[in-house]
User: Fold this.
Amino acid sequence: MDTGAGADGADGMDGLARQQEVLPGLLATLPDSYGKEPMPPHMLDYPLLLSTLYERAVRIYPHQEIVSVNPDGSVHRTDYGETDLRIRKLVSALAGLGIEPGDPVGTLAFNTHRHHEVYWATANTGRICHTVNIRLFPEQIRYIVDHARDRVVFVERSQLPTVEPLAADLPGVANWVLMDCEPSETSLPGAIGYEDLIADAAPAGEWPQLDERSPHMYCYTSGTTGNPKGVAYTQRSTYLHTLTAIAYRPVGPPDNVMPVVPMFHAAAWGLPFTGTAAGAKLTYPGEDLSAVALVDLIEGEQVTFSAGVPTVWLAIQHYLDANPDRDTSSIHSFLCGGSAVPRAMIDWFWRNRGIRVVHAWGMTETNPLATMANLRPEMESWDWERQLDFLETQGLPAPGLRVKIVDDEGEELPHDGEAFGELLIQGPWIAAEYLRDPRSAETMVDGWLRTGDVCKITPEGYVRITDRSKDVIKSGGEWISSIDVENVIMGHPKVTEAAVVGLAHPKWQERPVALVVVQAGVQVTGEDMASYLSGKVARWWLPDEYVFVDEVPKTSTGKFDKKVIRDAYSDLLQR
Ligand code: ADP
Assistant:
């Protein structure tokens, strides 16, 4: 194993000293000789490189399909072998643009085969794919393209209205590569068409040997307060994340993996890497993420496994409810997370469609999958409702990760399913710092990542998130879980979405208020909601008000934007 000793970093510290700074807790348990005495080799000192996983998949499954939906709705079909040639040409073309290993490459794109090509052309060669969240505000997009130091940015036609006004303020970007349109269609300087770029490029040969600790991807958090923070995924972190994800939620060559979660957010939860390494068919849905378009793909392409945020699957649930003849029998399970998954949704997909919703939790900072709600063996024989008690949690930490909960003083709390505190996590695919950002010191402490999520951990090891720390509701000194109340409201058959926030109250300090979206054409009152909830949550957890809205405000990554909700209704309980 590479101990890191002697590898000089840019800051002049050797690798071991840097690790000692970052992971004192872990290193304290190692013998004094660690990293100092020469070790016999024992095993090949073989770096954990993504190109190893990639090369195997292409060699063994050259005819495995990659399907991608074009902006006009037509379907592009290719396979691993053809794509490999294009990826190798793209590598040479990037070198021709002066983009060398270690240089970042920006993307503003949906989930498509070309985005997949950029993912792998960078991962295989030590270049860095910087996926820009297209739903950020223009100023945030400008900030992160500048902050990541992108010199070339790949962009789709749909994003031109966003980036054209920014280009003058991004002098570092020498070239804009147009993924699905022609240079004549834009005012962007240095614009090149993607197909022109790779047409005459000579395919690159052997993948280079890289330092496994080198970055291959930059992902930025959405930054609801302040500028987004960048996280650099490394060869090593994504390699380990990929193998663990395959083992923990098995996918293989017979699978057809459809990443609905965007490739511009947390690497589409790693599915382009996981799916490829597993040799699975890949189905990229492109721009249209409507329920009907996704069900068309599931049915037409025989998708077996997918992943996306709850709002996507809730829309599919309601669509399937109204269109019971649609066939989803190919799909055995999908990952769902990014925000809490309603119990009622897990129940619906299992009972009505035989589909297992696998609740997962993660963050941009965790590469991103960290926990998954798999059942323990003894639970397999339990009745469904009892199983649901665990399937609705955020799940068990993936092998390789350690979690703990701490109180406000940082004291560790028991895993008894009662005590709740901030979730801390550590492991080989957990960020040790933000990219060139002094805010690292607040979040990465003593070798642990402070998640900002408040949770309990059951004696069986299941993590149950009750709130983000900034969304916790304090009423009369007692604490209310907004996620638990939302979950119950979303179990109401006529409700499609519900967000619960704490609003200032003259007597109780804060009281919960629910924003509720009901199905089109349906009438529901606050009294209906209150009587539905009564008996299902503690009386004093019942929201003081139900505000019926057409849509709950959401962040760029599809989470309820509770800050916006609190601001919009700040006076509601002050009367
Ligand atoms: P961003 O912060 O940019 O929106 P992230 O994916 O990094 O995107 O967000 C991570 C946060 O999302 C977590 O800290 C947690 O609050 C929330 N989250 C993710 N998955 C779940 C889940 N399954 N249940 C509840 N909250 C979740």
